[in-house]
Amino acid sequence: MIRRRNLRKGVQLHNEKDLTKPATLEVVTPVQVRLTISEGRYHQVKRMFAAVGNHVVELHRERIGAITLDENLAPRRVSPVD
């Protein structure tokens, strides 16, 4: 089970002094969640889940800042930004 309260408050990552900024977590299915973060530390999502006793099997980025990625964009492909 994911400790949502910990993610909402911020998580202490291994070898880092400061907590992560608070995140929001939406359970999509019993094995899939949507996590929204407002900073981008090194492998942050994987490290946050590890810090609360879970692991990431697959990761999909939907948005970077104000740019929403095309859901049909294949891995390792690029798309022009308007």
Automatic annotation (TrEMBL):
Keywords: Isomerase, Lyase. Its EC number is 4.2.1.70, 5.4.99.19. SUPFAM superfamilies: Pseudouridine synthase (SSF55120). The keyword Hydrolase does not apply. It comes from the Bacteria. Gene3D superfamilies: Alpha-L RNA-binding motif. The keyword ATP-binding does not apply. GO terms for molecular function: 16S rRNA pseudouridine(516) synthase activity; pseudouridylate synthase activity; RNA binding. One of its GO terms (biological process) is enzyme-directed rRNA pseudouridine synthesis. Belongs to the pseudouridine synthase RsuA family. This is Ribosomal small subunit pseudouridine synthase. It comes from Salmonella enterica subsp. salamae.
